[in-house]
């Protein structure tokens, strides 16, 4: 990632609230994406929140991409948008139950197997 002018963060970036075991162990990020987030995440977070001002073309472009995500082309831009989507977006919830009503299973039950109390 040496071809970028993007500033490294002053400290390593972690999100212990949404990704307590690390970005890569969550299953959502690759090891390379995790490394980008750890190295540049603090800078990207501070640029996004307005704490830092952009000092070069890469950082100005990053702010443009935050407003227009479809223009993301670099790995840094794409990984940050992915992080934002996963960390701040709604978490999908999948149940193990289907939408079939229990009555639909009646045809599979053999009444002769059911013992009745007398």
Automatic annotation (TrEMBL):
Q: Where is the composition biased (Acidic residues)?
A: 105-118
- The annotated region (Disordered) lies at 96-118
Under which name does UniProt file this protein?
Macrodomain Ori protein
Q: Which family does it belong to?
A: Belongs to the MaoP family.
The organism's lineage is: Bacteria, Pseudomonadati, Pseudomonadota, Gammaproteobacteria, Vibrionales
